[in-house]
Amino acid sequence: MSEFDPVNWDLPEPFTMTIDVRDADTDRLGHANNVVYVRWLEDISWQHIDSLGMTWELHEKTGKAMAITRTEIDYLASANAGDRLVLGTWLTGFDGRFRSARQFQLVRESDGKTLVRAVSTHACVNMKSQRPSRMPAEYADILGGAMVPGGRGFDTTP
Hints:
Keywords: Hydrolase. One of its GO terms (molecular function) is fatty acyl-CoA hydrolase activity. This is Thioesterase. By secondary structure, the chain is of the alpha+beta class. It has helices spanning 34-51, 56-62, 137-146, and strands at 15-20, 64-75, 84-94, 99-108, 114-126. The N and C termini lie far apart (35 Å).
């Protein structure tokens, strides 16, 4: 986790990851490509749950995983090669059985400007069948214990 503590985190105590934007992350427009942002969201999500004890070994042992069902991203400003960014995340939704939600905020370190806000929702699936499955008690304990109140949870619109 980064020691960077911008003034305007959307929620308290984010789990953070520092990102140095590379030339390879940019597209023809000269800014970070939208696909790269999705990769960053996935990277921090795995780092966060791993830090909570929901390791890949636990996924293999239980045969269950949390699969992304929706990602909503608001691109507020561009990130460019050479920028140092700090991506924060929080677990903001959990139904205790099948679903969880996570919120993200991406901040440029040099000026504290928020570049992206995003929310993703996840459903527990059986890793073999890839079909929805009730989450193991271990997942419920980990996710329930890491919930941050006040964030964006599940989107109820179709």
